[in-house]
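name: query_chain
kind: protein
chains: 1
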Amino acid sequence: MSKPKAYVGRAIVDSALSRLAEVADVRVWPSPTRCPDDVLLKEIGDIEVFLGNNRWTGAVMDQAPKLRLIANISVGYDNVDVPAATQRGLVVTNTPGVLSDTTADTAFALLMTAARRICEAGRYVRAGKWVAVGGSASMFGHDVHHATLGIIGLGRIGFEVAHRALGFHMKVLYHDVVRREDLEKQYGLQYVDMDTLLSESDFVSLHTVLSDQTRALIGAPELSKMKRTAFLINASRGEVVDEPALIDALKEGKIAGAGLDVFAKEPTDPNNPLLKMDNVVALPHIGSATEATRVAMQQLAVDNAIAVLQGKPPLTPVNPEVLSKKL
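structure:
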């Protein structure tokens, strides 16, 4: 009896691939970057499971009549039209939890780097501008300790950022559609409305999923409510921020700076004005980019694929309502 077919849309570690190969006939796009869309369309006609991060619209799903599972190798799943998948009875999974600490580390690194002007100061030294003993007053930054951090989206990653902030004796405000009174009581976090968070925070850190409700969540009106001394940190999705509005706010000095791991379009244009600003720390979407974390994400995606192929519920379904149907 032949095995079901699986396609992996980016290179994964051998240990994960060999586990999947025990239950499926596997084909792999060999690059660490996701396979091109035209390649995907040629490969999905006979597959039952897909692992990777390609964009899946309803039209693409219709080209894969045997497909049962889209296993995203990320916590975000805005690349998949989940309602379209649900309508077609397709399970969508993601990889939450295993990357929370690593992504929180990145977000807090962005916060500290932006506040203390680390990248700018490094360029200052390399350019030979450091001529006075003790550095220069032109490199003065902002204190992180005892400052106020506002977190928008207190999910797994948002909480881990809050946890790190407490070690710096920061006051932590948060806003989320779900209030976490247990965390408020245990850790002293404070739930506030969005306007209060924006107006009182020295740092605003975004940790929300990208959806119709959160696209351009932070635009000109929101940026205008922030302190002129405040920083915006984004390690969620680029489109959560209205990028032109952020550029204008930074140019006009409405906020002090930004730390960005994500952009509206990725890879971002090298001529993006944000990349020309000294008060912007820019990273190439590396929030979860450590070897251990990426391997854990791949293994979890494989766990989900194996479960579905064996007729079992996946570990981390995005649309669990599909599970009432036969896998």
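note: The mean pLDDT is 96.
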